[in-house]
């Protein structure tokens, strides 16, 4: 199954089918048929929501959705963390709603990073039900109730907003979660592979047709530091053909330190990899960005083993990793280091200990907004605040 997923991803990322292997090309007609069926289901679902056959739940606080149009690697979860941390520091307690896909590795990472802040995390496929349970437990308060002349009051009422009560919901991977109404739609785009072959699932990486760009209030091009100026201009032009007035921001993942698997409290400096041999092992949506970041750390040699997004390592995978490590050790005459992402660590930290005596380290990074023509960190936060303030203030909820 892992091999099949890899083949499907290679087809989805391909720009020229003639360069694919015979096996890859033999799967294209099957995937094309499945993609057509998926498109029909999408159209029917959209029709049912548009004409009210399916209801949308309105939560009693503002909802900020962070989503994407393609599968994995778009920086959704780091952006959710960035927004939630900013809200908490601003005196508003956010509730993160996440589906908890594939064992909840992202939810565990968020909980660790946001520990000590007034942030709640709800995990469950039915986000409305999950939210209702947490509203009942913690209460809620709409920060728009404290607007003074169109702005959040900074002094007298701030302590009332800064409470244990939920003030804003941040919806992780929310763009296709149509059953929940949102006030702000943030679309994350992987700058390295924005649309793949432009086909919808499973022939391509698109979860919706590109015209869905029109639903976005803000677009963020992630991994922009790894993309050429020419390609960034092309991505921007393509998006503004769909929606001219779309605000566009750029982000990157900024590495901070490593920690050793088995001792999460260690803070190992990035320069430890200088002139070293590294094996990058990952099961994430954008392995290329991860590997490119490691190569920039002055390593002697970087090899890689990529698994499909959210893949849980098995004993057979550990053996494959060991074989690769032995090859590298024989080639360079020194023990290589395994480097993984935090997401891979949180998926299953125990199985990685089976690689002893080889050292395994997790790379810690944080999302940063890249200043570009007036669109920087402060500009993003200001725009987000204005979008929340100007959103409709209808607190009527549908029955759950």
UniProtKB/TrEMBL annotation:
<keyword id="KW-0812">Transmembrane</keyword>
<dbReference type="GO" id="GO:0016020">
    <property type="term" value="C:membrane"/>
</dbReference>
<comment type="pathway">
    <text>Glycolipid biosynthesis; lipid IV(A) biosynthesis; lipid IV(A) from (3R)-3-hydroxytetradecanoyl-[acyl-carrier-protein] and UDP-N-acetyl-alpha-D-glucosamine: step 6/6.</text>
</comment>
<dbReference type="InterPro" id="IPR003758">
    <property type="entry name" value="LpxK"/>
</dbReference>
<keyword id="KW-0441">Lipid A biosynthesis</keyword>
<protein>
    <recommendedName>
        <fullName>tetraacyldisaccharide 4'-kinase</fullName>
        <ecNumber>2.7.1.130</ecNumber>
    </recommendedName>
</protein>
<dbReference type="GO" id="GO:0009245">
    <property type="term" value="P:lipid A biosynthetic process"/>
</dbReference>
<feature type="transmembrane region" description="Helical">
    <location>
        <begin position="27"/>
        <end position="48"/>
    </location>
</feature>
<keyword id="KW-0444">Lipid biosynthesis</keyword>
<dbReference type="GO" id="GO:0005524">
    <property type="term" value="F:ATP binding"/>
</dbReference>
<keyword id="KW-0472">Membrane</keyword>
<keyword id="KW-0808">Transferase</keyword>
<keyword id="KW-0067">ATP-binding</keyword>
<keyword id="KW-0547">Nucleotide-binding</keyword>
<keyword id="KW-0443">Lipid metabolism</keyword>
<dbReference type="Pfam" id="PF02606">
    <property type="entry name" value="LpxK"/>
</dbReference>
<keyword id="KW-1133">Transmembrane helix</keyword>
<keyword id="KW-0418">Kinase</keyword>
<dbReference type="GO" id="GO:0009029">
    <property type="term" value="F:lipid-A 4'-kinase activity"/>
</dbReference>
